[in-house]
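User: Modeling request: complex.
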Amino acid sequence: MNPRITMAVTGRVLSQLRRDHRTLAMLLVLPCLLMTLLWWMYNDSGPIFDRIGPALLAIFPFIVMFLVTSVTTLRERSSGTLERLLAMPMGKLDFLVGYAVAFGVVAALQSVLAVGVSVGLLGLEIVGHVWLLTLVAVVDATLGTALGLFVSAFARTEFQAVQFMPAIVVPQILLCGLLVPRDSMPDVLGAISDVLPLSYAVDAMTHLTVSSSAGEVWGDLVVVAAFVLAGLALGAATLRRRTA
Amino acid sequence: MMKSTVEVSGLTVVRGGRPVLTGLDLVIGKGVTGLLGPSGCGKSTLLRSIVGVQRVDSGTVSVLGEPAGSAPLRDRIGYVTQDSSVYLDLSVTENLRFFARVLGVGADEVDRAVEAVDLTSHRDALAGNLSGGQLSRVSLAVALLGKPDLLVLDEPTVGLDPVLRRDLWELFHRIADAGATVLVSSHVMDEAERCDRLLLMREGRIIADDTPAAIKAAAGADDIETAFLALVEASPA
Ligand SMILES: Nc1ncnc2c1ncn2[C@@H]1O[C@H](COP(=O)(O)OP(=O)(O)OP(=O)(O)O)[C@@H](O)[C@H]1O
Ligand SMILES: [Mg+2]
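Assistant: Request completed. Predicted assembly structure:
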């Protein structure tokens, strides 16, 4: 890896995003709007927003980043720019980490906004530290990025890339504890839930709403971060300089 | 003594279950070499093998004394793929500055490359708003960054007007005169006369490898197109 090249990729991805106002709006504004919608839905139903809001703060950035990343990297494959880059002195990890850092920066902005709106305007009650909540959201978004980078290796078109969304993202949402607490699921599903990264992200968020102790949150964060690294490593392993 | 830049021996490539190149042997030296042949004959496959982005089934390809695709070659080869391979949502200079940073070359190289392909007046235009010919010149400019020792250009003159085509061929010769090897593919036979050396390709085989004049003389033809047809008829199907 070469920091100059990694940062070149990051800088380029960010300038492309800056040009693309619609995607930027989707990345930054949409999670805030969705949180507002949720708050409004449960406005007359007691403390439900406080219960599920934090989980959704983990889920929205994950979904959005997964989608944007898998489609953008696939576009890079199909346009021939990836082939050109890999014929240049570009390490595979330069490429992947460059993307991950760029989207990580966007994820950080997105999470600060979403957490700010939820806690500041919508009155989401959390007991733990707000900065820790933001950190969890950023790591979740990076998880979406890493998985998006990984699955783009298995798609040949942008259309196929989008189809990974129901296959990879939706099961994680169903099993993460948002709909049924993880310990009340049937054993098999509970075990599956235990090996899915989003479960740990949601656990961390939920923990922050009920307790101010940070120990368990850090434990969950480490698990999610390990999935991020594994996603990047698998992404690098599936990126081929030579293609058929 | 002039040493060969590219040496291909016994190269076999199977794509989509069908053999595209079988046991190809080839040596390419300095100067401008044209790779000509009909659509689908395997030109891009051969160029990709030389650049080192094609999965090959057997045989060896060495470039500048190193195995094709190996790390020391990656900043010594300029490669223009058949599709434009630039970022349509970035401007001409933004594209070039990005690739220059990847290659570790300075900003003066960007200006030089933009001038070389005659895009100075469009340097701040978004690549996606350029015409097809302008876009392929942006792609060519990227390949010129850092003065590579080998330029591999896959149909770089498609869709260009005659004046621009002439200018680009002059540029290829200037680059070759400065000591580089330039390998250009085309399926337009009338570009043949502009090459120092010609490789005529058909169905994955090289059916002629000589100067344009020698190829015409051997086939007793007045132009390369006639010579190509004569060679096709003479070669075993
Ligand atoms: N990605 C691919 N997968 C499978 N087969 C391929 C692929 N790309 C090309 N081929 C096949 O390999 C053969 C040679 O293709 P190649 O692109 O090298 O031809 P070409 O001489 O460059 O043609 P053109 O002048 O049209 O660019 C063709 O029969 C083509 O169908
Ligand atoms: Mg081709």
